[in-house]
Amino acid sequence: MVATTVHLVRHGEVFNPDKILYGRIPGYHLSELGHRMAERVAEHLSGGDHDITVVTASPLQRAQETATPLAGRLGLELGTDERLIEAGNHFEGKTFGVGDGSLRHPQHWPFLLNPFRPSWGEAYTAQVARMHAAVHSAREQAEGHEAVLVSHQLPIWIARQAFENKRLWHDPRNRQCSLASLTSLRFVGERLVGLHYTEPAADLLPGASQVSGA
């Protein structure tokens, strides 16, 4: 059986001056810093240590823009997979907080009752199902080589938790999935044999400007 690696890449920083939870809203593009992050990822993955034959992204603009420099460097057609899209969320399009955010409005409170599902958005189990299906499709496409899938923080983290047989509910502050990071899954045949996390754009991370769940 042959070894295949699938890299789950989170997109770069997004231009979001209003600090809303943009979720699946179309039109949110990378900031200037986000484009630098995308170039850094492309530089990192197009080196001689990698053998990438598949580059696929979520249909959302920020993911497509993150994947484009890598596909261009490698001369590969950029694919799109709806299964890599951001998680659905009731608070999409709103600011999320107690002060001036949506949490101060009682009509939103029922959506916070069950953090284990979670009640405010797409079920964790549904995210796992679509993300794992996308990973295995890419593994089959790139068999014996490497594939890159550009997605979003929560779906990547939930997919990782499931691959590691860990519980799906979690504290969002503890996610290991920074902007432009790589969660690399190594398979032998269909069996996952290793997982490695790297941050090729670590020195570009803005810290406080990140929006959780983006």
From TrEMBL:
One GO location term (cellular component): cytoplasm
Superkingdom per UniProt: Bacteria
GO molecular function annotation: phosphatase activity
UniProt-listed InterPro entries: His_Pase_superF_clade-1 (IPR013078), His_PPase_superfam (IPR029033), PGM_Phosphatase (IPR050275)
CDD domains: HP_PGM_like (cd07067)
PANTHER family listed in its UniProt record: BROAD-SPECIFICITY PHOSPHATASE YOR283W-RELATED (PTHR48100), PHOSPHOGLYCERATE MUTASE (PTHR48100:SF51)
Protein's UniProt name: Histidine phosphatase family protein
Organism per entry: Sanguibacter suaedae
